[in-house]
Amino acid sequence: MRNLSIVTEFILLGIPHTEDLESMLFVLFLGFYIFTLLGNLLILLAIISSTRLHTPMYFFLCQLSVCDIFFPSVSSPKMLFYLSGNSRVISYAGCASQLFFYHFLGCTECFLYTVMAYDRFVAICYPLRYTVIMSHRACASLAVGTSFFGCIQATFLTALTFQLPYCGANEVDYFFCDIPVMLKLACADTSALEMVGFISVGLMPLSCFLLILTSYSCIVCSILQIRSTEGRRRAFSTCSAHLTAILLSFMPVVLIYLQPTPNPWLNATVQILNNLVTPMLNPLIYSLRNKEVKSSLRNVLQQVAFLPGN
């Protein structure tokens, strides 16, 4: 019998097939990360500083920006740390934390997109009752609910993964700790857990997507009944930004977790896009076609430009 010791730390091997590209990737990912943080902070400042934007739609957009600040921060700092030539070692607790917060924030965003679709559904299909249905109390409850159910899902997936014994190899063939790569390192049969995880990870986004699809089917029917061309254009403009963000968020989940035969390089590429590029694009998606957000952003940038010392 082999003498296997209990694993107390893991080694992140990084993105597959990118040997000798560390310096270039460091500069590239650092740029993405900085733009992601700045873009979402600007959106937050623009919404908070403008009373015109203190509406349910922008309240949920604020929550999305907060998620988009923290979501890439789960894996990017450690990735940038080892790409700059430092240690690739991550502790057992650090690995579990990465997995938990990645799925907590990812699931919260998934639920949040569903809530945002419901908000647009009420605004367009029931405009006269909008302020009553989407009251401050309802918005707060929905916002807390997205985080609460995201936490439950992440806790379940993390407990499912780390209740397994890790007593052999400790090299994680990826750039952060995620379920598929961690299950490969477990020294126990993981087939049943893989099936449970597959169903759990697949069922949640599928349910959210179906709810979003239902909301937007009703929205499209209502928009087509609007007689004013300008009214239809504004409604489609608002909804198209949301739909673009939804597609960018949901497609990586399908490609990474629901493909029959995993491809490590494809998974890493899609995961990088999901972790860094999508959160960076969300501020652009929601601001470029929104005159109110652009106006508020302009005011924020002007105030920053005229601060003492500038």
What does this structure look like?
This protein has helices at residues 22-49, 56-70, 76-83, 92-125, 130-133, 136-162, 179-185, 191-224, 229-257, 264-288, 291-305; strands at residues 9-12, 89-91, 171-172. With 310 residues, it is mainly α. The chain contains eleven helices and three strands. Strands 2-1-3 form a three-stranded mixed sheet. The radius of gyration is 21 Å and the shape is globular. The mean pLDDT is 84. It comes from Mustela putorius furo (European domestic ferret).
Characteristic terms for this protein:
single chain, 310 residues, mainly alpha, 3-stranded mixed beta sheet, 11 helices, globular
Number of helices: 11
Q: What is the typical, i.e. mean, pLDDT?
A: 84
Q: Please report the distance between the alpha carbons of the first and last residues.
A: 70 Å
Question: How many beta-strand segments?
Answer: 3
* Oligomerization status of the protein chains: single chain
| Element order: H for helix, E for strand | EHHHEHHHEHHHHH
Residue share in helices? Answer: over 70%
Shape: globular
Biggest β-sheet description: 3 strands, mixed
Low-confidence stretches: none
Structural category: mainly alpha
What share of residues are in beta strands? under 5%
Spatial order of the strands forming the largest sheet: 2-1-3
Radius of gyration: 21 Å
What's the short version?
Pfam families: 7tm_4. With 310 residues, this protein is mainly α.
